[in-house]
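Before relying on records like the one below, remember that each one covers exactly one chain. Contacts with other chains, cofactors or solvent are not represented anywhere in the record.
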Amino acid sequence: MEWSVLLEAYNWNGEQRFTADRIAADPRAARYLTGWPREGDFGVVAETDAGEPVGAAWARYLPEDEPGYGFVASDVPELTLGVLPGHRGRGHGRALMEALIRAAAEQPVPIARLSLSVEDGNHAARLYSSLGFTRVGRCDNADTMVLDIGSENRPPAI
């Protein structure tokens, strides 16, 4: 399921700009999942009551010599969020992000920051900002955003 969610993260605007084969063949895109899970990787999955996948959010440390699109430092995991078509606009993205932020704070070595990249026009940018992510950089047509995980930014337990 992770690869289909990664594909949806890349095709966030509903257009099929990317195919699964293209993402798997692109080293920069594939590094978000190749070899999953590695030490330090963590994530959350949403499913319907019937067990059908809705989406997922995960975070992974990437090295400086193999950065992702939202790379800020090798000690800051970069997150990916994808919600499958038919489930968007129902709050699943927010729920996944809140669960991932809680999971980051609960890691054996608590994580101080999370990063991500969001392309221009992606409505998820509003979600990220509402959760406390701030713009720290820009590359091509995308902003790099970071969340400082502290008690004031941590979503409440549910």
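The two ends are 25 Å apart (CA to CA).
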